[in-house]
Write a structure and sequence with these properties.
The chain is of the alpha+beta class and 439 residues long. The protein has two domains: 167 residues, Creatinase/prolidase N-terminal domain (Creatine Amidinohydrolase, Chain A, domain 1); 263 residues, Creatine Amidinohydrolase (Alpha-Beta Complex), CATH 3.90.230.10. The strands form seven sheets. It has a six-stranded mixed sheet with strand order 6-5-4-1-7-8, sandwiched between helices. The chain binds glycine and manganese (II) ion (2 copies).
Amino acid sequence: MQISVREYQKRRRHLLDAMAPNSIAILPAAPVRPRNRDVEYPFRQNSDFYYLSGLSEPDAVLVLIPEREHGESILFCKEKDPSFERWNGKLTGQEGAINDLLFDDAFPINDIDDILPGLMEGRNRVYYSMGLDEKFDRHVMEWVNILRSKVRSGAHPPDEFVALEHTLHDMRLFKSSSEIKVMRQAGKISAKAHCEAMRVCKPGKYEYQLEAAIQHVFMQEGARSTAYPSIVGGGENACVLHYITNSDKLKSGDLVLIDAGCELDCYAADITRTFPVSGKFSAEQRTIYEIVLAAQYAAIDEVRAGQHWNNPHEAAVKVITEGLLEIGLLQGEIKELIEKEAYKKFYMHRTGHWLGMDVHDVGDYKIGGEWRVLEPGMVMTVEPGIYIAPELEDVDDRWKGIGVRIEDDVLVTKQAPEIFTMDVPKEVDEIEALMRGPC
Ligand code: GLY
Ligand code: MN
Ligand code: MN
């Protein structure tokens, strides 16, 4: 674990301090999800739960109760069970929750129906995010109904339910120095993997073979999972934004777009590079690529404290629209083309998103209807692109099927933006040199 248990404890303290008096917060762990018959998907903890606990087990519930005499941070988790552990590996147990994870109090998860209604009793406000886990929603309703059925004996069911996210997600938006360390490392590993894909790429290979090269580096470097399914799109597949089939043969003369990032200790990296399958850009590919690259540089330059969230997007849109106008893919007057969003025919997504424990991380983009002002500690992606789909009308054939995106992970600091993913080249000459090198 690269984040210390003290840090998890501090996060719980911070949230407890932000909660209303006489309230309770309830946060369940992620469920195990079935894949097929009795095979399950690899378990991935819910990010909010992990952020507050450091526990990566299912069948657990975290409860926070400010000012509770016998302890404010409580964990329900599985009881130690030698025969279960012989099959499935070690459990934390209640002693571990208190001694190792620094919870104030811990109970067996099997006792939750008996204990939780009592903990809810008399609290006015329940912080619980309804609608994310249907099965758990039903449990919460049952616990409330137990209290309702006892009002004539003086029980006080809660008056209001409030989503937990608002405060918690604002905390997650600002990365601590240890979170930044992990994200830097995730960026480095992912950059190394992209370099490897460039090195091993050649015509005739399949898209999934580049995916395999990337995944091999992730695993070798200790990142056991991708942060999201890798996109490896050769030729016009690069114009399909969420292409994850990755099954086609790579052809000489095409570009290949790879969007892949590892997950390290529950923190995501998110990199896209686009490069020529044969190692050399054609004139048209290079032209489009250079526009996207210039847009990305302009956008990264806007990732500064005091700028607002939309500044990088506006900078990218301007450079892309100018570029498309210059090469004749758009016609008209620059200001009007931007106002009418004419670029959306070729650039239909936004320039980035928050990045953290989730690849599309939590945190508000607007506050009071206004774009959020960037502050040190926020991490975002910067990922402009141009996609010239083959079916587009009024486009010269020579541009068709070219899809380019360039994506890096950027930290807002007090000074210049820090790029976590800069170890993988993105200049045309650098990419071509790397691909020429010995394999
Ligand atoms: N890989 C997902 C994204 O770039 O947003
Ligand atoms: Mn991406
Ligand atoms: Mn992204």
